[in-house]
Each structure stands twice: as structure tokens, then as C-alpha cells.
């Protein structure tokens, strides 16, 4: 080989070595030194994020817009999504899948490290979040979800699994979790006490949550797959040793998460400490539907959740004309308590084209009617601004202005819910789930205890409207009351049963309640074929056209879980 060729060969070898070196250097620089390596990360570090993010997401739904749907609360400013079901044709599920991706990472690391406690916890969380997704939207990515790193189109643009597949998968995972979580705490070598913000690493609490969620989803299937639902509920009810559930009527076993209250991101959503304007609190009022139900039962929880009106109205025929046209209060005494009243003459109402039926003169609690046009001026409010300071309606209790507190919790599933499920199974379905009356009473007792009014139980339960009458309506109404700040589950019960009987208000997007959320715009743009296939499986109704997207992807089109049931309307 001549000298020229040798020089060429040496140059090529040098270039090759430089290329490899550069590649290695580029790979080194491409690594995020602050990021988590999924192959080496301690799963406990990510588990805490999974739990806290799930808690925030669950409360954001159940205390915010779904509380509006289920008429626990209404807003008197910036109202469309809360009062009127105006969701703009798109509802994102991205935060839920973000939680699930982190949860999958924890699960994969737990499997690799043979960490059974973490595996069981992850299966419970996976079940709850996927359950939430399918309950909210219908069909959704499930089997091929959370696998985008495999870089195949079937994973990056996953097909939507049928609801039946998702529910069955959830129940299978909860069964597996029940086994994984069946050991004594000391038997698990990798504790999670320091990161478990729900149960401080107690496996029996997680096991009870798993089986309680299984009861929830079996009841969800009771109209569509009644045999599977019956067998599942009867299996759990008959074997508390192998299938323990959340059941203590002092609410001490409830699956909840406290809020840390250290910043706006880890505090109760309506707090006025980090929301200096106070708008999130100020705009949120009690809904008339819930207030009237609670008042008719002399329910002690009303005084925990709501404040009395700052100033009640009193229309008097004997007052001079024009009285009350300008806001002015007078001191008075009601039942020994100093209060304020605004006297109003009938001509003032007539001038505003109002009748006595258009206002509420209750001296204690006044809720906003559902989906009003102009809720800021309801009940002669002197303040017509968005987020008004109306003194004539009931604001939420001052506890909801705080960033944290003993009653401010994300409430995932409770003893009250479990007992109401078993009461319905026994009384309505006729299944072997225990004594219906006992479960009904235990559900009420547990809810009263959860809200600090356990001592009122003996008096409350004897009222004619509360004493057990063996009906689904009564069970579901009490379950709906007990779901305060966690109204998502009440919505799912409503879709299954049509109870409680709720009516849409005059400003609502449709004359009936919605039954699902919209598939979001990003999915419709990026995963169009699979979204379209899922849309085709939705059942259009006479109300579907009220949606903002199309008649298929509408909040008034029915997913599989309620198709053919005639519910809720």
C-alpha cells in the first residue's frame, strides 16, 4: 500500500473514532441530570406524586364543575362550565393519563424489585383513575395506553377499549391487589410510610380501599352485567376476612387525602390565602336543590357546609312604597340570634317584574337556583358584578376559605358509600349483601361522623323522611348528600339510576342533565380514526344535538354503560 493510501486509511480511522466519541458525548449531554431514570429511580419518590396529583384531580372534579352538575353548588360569576354544562366541545383527560404514566413507572419498578406493597397500591390507583376516565368519557385507551415509549403507532395512537373491557380489567386488577396487599405490614420489605399520604403505608387500609372500589364498579355494572355484578358483590359481602372493606361508621377508615396547605398547588381549591382575590371562594354558592333537601330533613350537615345568609329578605304588604328598593339592612333577632334583615315592599318586586316565587325569604339558608340567567342579581342582590358579594344567598362555610383543615380532604371512597352500595344491593336488587336497613343506617351514621356531627344521628334517623323505607330513591338521595365535595360518584349514580330527580335550569345548554364529557380536541385531531370509532359506539339521543361538537361526541349521547337502560332519562 502506497503512502497516500496509508494516510487516507489513517484519516478514516481517526474520523470513525471521533464520530463514536461525539456520539457518546451527545448522548451524555442529552441526559437530564435532574430527571428520573426509569431504570434506576426509587419508585417511592414518584409514588408520592401519583397520590397527591390524584387527590387534587379528584377534588377539582367533585368540588368544582361536577358539583355544579349534581346541584350541590352553583356559581354566580363565570358560570357556564359549572351551572350550564357549557364545556366548549372539549374536555381534556391529559392530567389523568399523566397520573397513570407515573403510576405505571412505579408499578414497573416495583415488579422489577419484587415490591409487592407498591404493586398493590399501584393497581388500586390504576383502577381508580381508569375507572374515572371511563365513567367520565366512555370508551377510552386502556389496553394499549401508557406504552408510547414502544414507538409503535398502535401505542402512540392507541385504539379505544370498550367500556366493558375497561371495567372488567379494573375488577381483575383490584382482585390482584387484594392478594398483593393481604400480608401483615411487617412482611413488606420496602415500606412506603413516608410517601403514602393516604394511609401512611398500612397495607390493610389499601386492601380495604381495593375491595371497596370493587363494590363500586360491580354496582356500576349492575344494569348491564347483572350476573357478574351480583356474584362480585355477594362474594365480597360474604367473606370479610378475605375481602375486607371500608366499613367503620366513625369514618376512620375512609380513603381520604389531607391538603398540605403550603402553596396554591397543594391547598384546598377555594382557599383565600393563596387566591388573594378570593374569587374561587366568592363565586361559589350553595345550590337551592341541595339546601331544600337538607332543610326538609333538618340535616345537621347544612350548618357545617354553608353559612346563614348575611341578610334575609322580608316582604311586607304594610310597608311604605319603595321600601327596600335601595339596599339597606336593619338589625333584628331570630331565635335569640342577632341577625340582619332587608324589608321590601311588594311594589319593589313588581317594578322588577318579580313575584314572591322569584325570591327566597328563608331567614337562614338560601341556595342559588339551578342555571339561572343572571345569578349575580338573584334575590335582590345589590351587587350585579361577576363574582358578586350577594348578602341574600348562602355562601359556603368559612372552612372552605382555608388552605387546609380537618374537614378539607380529597374523599375517594368512604364507609358511607360502601354501606349505601350494600343497602341498594340488598333492598333493590335482592342480593345477599346483608340487612339493607342496617347498611342504610350505617351509611348515614358514617357520613355524619365524617362531617363532625355524629351526635345528631339518633335524632336525624327518626325523621319520617329519613327513616328507612326500603326504596332506591331514598338510598341514592342519602348517598348523593353524603358525596358533598366528591360529587363525581353522585353523577355516575345519577346516570345509572336517574336519581336524585334533577332538572336542568333555564340557562342550561340542554333541558336534561349531561351523561358524559366530550372527547378532547387534541385527540380528535391527532388520533382521529380511533376517536371516530369510539364516537360511532355512542348512542345518540333526542338531546345529542345540544352538544357543541357533533351529535355523536356530545354530553347527551349515551355510552355503553347506560345504553338500553332508559336511564337517567
Query: If you average the pLDDT, what whole number results?
Result: 94
Estimated radius of gyration: 28 Å
List the total number of helices. Answer: 21
Q: How many runs of DSSP E, i.e. beta strands?
A: 7
Order of helix and strand elements from N to C terminus: HHHEHHHHHHHEHEHHEEEHEHHHHHHH
Short description:
With 569 residues, the chain is mainly alpha-helical. It contains 21 helices and 7 strands. A 3-stranded mixed beta sheet has the order 4-6-5. A two-stranded antiparallel ribbon has the order 1-3.
Keywords:
single chain, about 575 residues, three-stranded mixed beta sheet, two-stranded antiparallel sheet, about 45% helix, globular
Task: Characterise the protein shown here.
- The chain is mostly helical.
- Helices cover 43% and strands 6% of the residues.
- The protein has helices at residues 3-29, 43-63, 65-69, 80-83, 94-112, 116-137, 153-156, 163-180, 203-220, 226-238, 279-282, 288-296, 302-305, 346-351, 415-427, 436-450, 457-460, 472-482, 487-497, 521-526, 528-536, and strands spanning 73-75, 255-258, 284-286, 312-315, 330-334, 337-344, 409-413.
- It has a three-stranded mixed β-sheet with strand order 4-6-5. Strands 1-3 form a two-stranded antiparallel ribbon. A two-stranded antiparallel sheet has the order 2-7.
- A hairpin with a 2-residue loop joins strand 5 and strand 6 (337-344).
- Helix 6 (116-137) runs antiparallel to helix 8.
- The longest helix is centred in the first third of the chain and has 27 residues, at 3-29.
- The chain starts with a helix and ends in a 33-residue tail after the last helix.
Amino acid at each position: 500500500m502506497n503512502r497516500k493510501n496509508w494516510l487516507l486509511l489513517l484519516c478514516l480511522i481517526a474520523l470513525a473514532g471521533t464520530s463514536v466519541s461525539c456520539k457518546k458525548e451527545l448522548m451524555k449531554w442529552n441526559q437530564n441530570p435532574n430527571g428520573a431514570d426509569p431504570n434506576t429511580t426509587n419508585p417511592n419518590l414518584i409514588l408520592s406524586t401519583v397520590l397527591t396529583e390524584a387527590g387534587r384531580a379528584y377534588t377539582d372534579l367533585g368540588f368544582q364543575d361536577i358539583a355544579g352538575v349534581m346541584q350541590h353548588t352553583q356559581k354566580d360569576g363565570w358560570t357556564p362550565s359549572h351551572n350550564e354544562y357549557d364545556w366548549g366541545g372539549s374536555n381534556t383527560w391529559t392530567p389523568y393519563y399523566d397520573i397513570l404514566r407515573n403510576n405505571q413507572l412505579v408499578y414497573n419498578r416495583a415488579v422489577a424489585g419484587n415490591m409487592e406493597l407498591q404493586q398493590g397500591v399501584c393497581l388500586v390507583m390504576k383502577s381508580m383513575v381508569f375507572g374515572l376516565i371511563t365513567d367520565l368519557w366512555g370508551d377510552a385507551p386502556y389496553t394499549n395506553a401508557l406504552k408510547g415509549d414502544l414507538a409503535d403507532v398502535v401505542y402512540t395512537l392507541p385504539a379505544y377499549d370498550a367500556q366493558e373491557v375497561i371495567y372488567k380489567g379494573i375488577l381483575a386488577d383490584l382482585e390482584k391487589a387484594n392478594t398483593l396487599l393481604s400480608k401483615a405490614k411487617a412482611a413488606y420489605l420496602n415500606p412506603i410510610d413516608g410517601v403514602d399520604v393516604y394511609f401512611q403505608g398500612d397495607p390493610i387500609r389499601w386492601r380495604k380501599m381495593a375491595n371497596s372500589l370493587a363494590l363500586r364498579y360491580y354496582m356500576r355494572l349492575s344494569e348491564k352485567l347483572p350476573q357478574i355484578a351480583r356474584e362480585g358483590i355477594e362474594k365480597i359481602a360474604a367473606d370479610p376476612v378475605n375481602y375486607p372493606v371500608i366499613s367503620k361508621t366513625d369514618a376512620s377508615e375512609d380513603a381520604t387525602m389531607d391538603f398540605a396547605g403550603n402553596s396554591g398547588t397543594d391547598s384546598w381549591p377555594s382557599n383565600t390565602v393563596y387566591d388573594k382575590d378570593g374569587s374561587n371562594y366568592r363565586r361559589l354558592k350553595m345550590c337551592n336543590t341541595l339546601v331544600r333537601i337538607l332543610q326538609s330533613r333538618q340535616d345537621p350537615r347544612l350548618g357545617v357546609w354553608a353559612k346563614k345568609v348575611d341578610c334575609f329578605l322580608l316582604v311586607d304588604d304594610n310597608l311604605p312604597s319603595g321600601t327596600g328598593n335601595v339596599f339597606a339592612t336593619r338589625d333584628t333577632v331570630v331565635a335569640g340570634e342577632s341577625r340582619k334583615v332587608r324589608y321590601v315592599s311588594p311594589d319593589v318586586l313588581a317594578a322588577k317584574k318579580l313575584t314572591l316565587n322569584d325570591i327566597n325569604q328563608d331567614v337562614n339558608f338560601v341556595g342559588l337556583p339551578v342555571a339561572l340567567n343572571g345569578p349575580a342579581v338573584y334575590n335582590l342582590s345589590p351587587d350585579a358584578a361577576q363574582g358578586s358579594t350577594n348578602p341574600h344567598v348562602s355562601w359556603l362555610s368559612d372552612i372552605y376559605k382555608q388552605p387546609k383543615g380537618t374537614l378539607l380532604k380529597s374523599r375517594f371512597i368512604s364507609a358511607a358509600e360502601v354501606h349505601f352500595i350494600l343497602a341498594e344491593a340488598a333492598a333493590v336488587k335482592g342480593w345477599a349483601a346483608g340487612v339493607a336497613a342496617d347498611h342504610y343506617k350505617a351509611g348515614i351514621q358514617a357520613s355524619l361522623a365524617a362531617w363532625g356531627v355524629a351526635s345528631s344521628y339518633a335524632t336525624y334517623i327518626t325523621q319520617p323522611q329519613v327513616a328507612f323505607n326500603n326504596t332506591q330513591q331514598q338510598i341514592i338521595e342519602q348517598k348523593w348528600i353524603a358525596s358533598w365535595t366528591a360529587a363525581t360518584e353522585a353523577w355516575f349514580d345519577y346516570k345509572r339510576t336517574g336519581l336524585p330527580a334533577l332538572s336542568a335550569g333555564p340557562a342550561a345548554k340542554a333541558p336534561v342533565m349531561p351523561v358524559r364529557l366530550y372527547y378532547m380536541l387534541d385527540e380528535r385531531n391527532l388520533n382521529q380514526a380511533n376517536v371516530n370509532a369510539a364516537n360511532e359506539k355512542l348512542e345518540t339521543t333526542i338531546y345529542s344535538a345540544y352538544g357543541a361538537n357533533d351529535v355523536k361526541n356530545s354530553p347527551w349521547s349515551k355510552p355503553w354503560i347506560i345504553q338500553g337502560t332508559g336511564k337517567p332519562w
